[in-house]
Amino acid sequence: MLVDAGAPATRFRREVLIDTPFHAAGERLMSWQVQRSAFRVRSSVPRVTPGAIVEMSPGVLPLRFYCRVTEVIDEPNRIGFVYAALPGHPERGEERFVVERRAGGEVAFVIEAISRPSTRAWASLGVLLRAGQEVITRVCYLRALG
């Protein structure tokens, strides 16, 4: 469940229909492939599990961001997870990634987030921080599952 990260928080939801079969998309999601579309990824576990910590680095800068998996979704028609930003991340909040099989057989990839800058320094980047989040979501994450 996404929780309010404190005011003023930004919420967003993006979704896209994908051609990848439901179980294949779920497998890719649960093996960190979405995050790998934008970042170098290190995790102590090859698959997403509750409590897992993932380290992400943009690769071009000496920055590292950490998130902890707070929830895993494993239902007949929904596969995914929620993770929360840990201290040092530019944002404070949570992000949910879910692959859904719809009644008509369509497969959708849904990303939801609630966040705010984690520090005044990150908040000073304002529009740039939000634009970066949007670019990563639309250009990398939403395209990662096909």
Query: What count of helical segments does DSSP give?
Result: 4
- In the sheet with the most strands, the strands line up as 1-7-6-5-4-3-2
CATH topology: Alpha-D-Glucose-1,6-Bisphosphate, Chain A, domain 4
Low-confidence segments, given as residue ranges, are none
Distance between the termini: 26 Å
Task: Report on this structure.
This protein is α+β, with helices and mostly antiparallel strands and 146 residues long. It has one domain (10-143): START domain (Alpha-D-Glucose-1,6-Bisphosphate, Chain A, domain 4, 2-Layer Sandwich), CATH 3.30.530.20. Helices cover 22% and strands 40% of the residues. It has four helices and seven strands; from the N terminus they run E-H-H-E-E-E-E-E-E-H-H. It has a seven-stranded antiparallel beta sheet. Strand 5 (78-85) and strand 6 form a beta hairpin. The protein is globular, with a radius of gyration of 15 Å. The two termini are 26 Å apart.
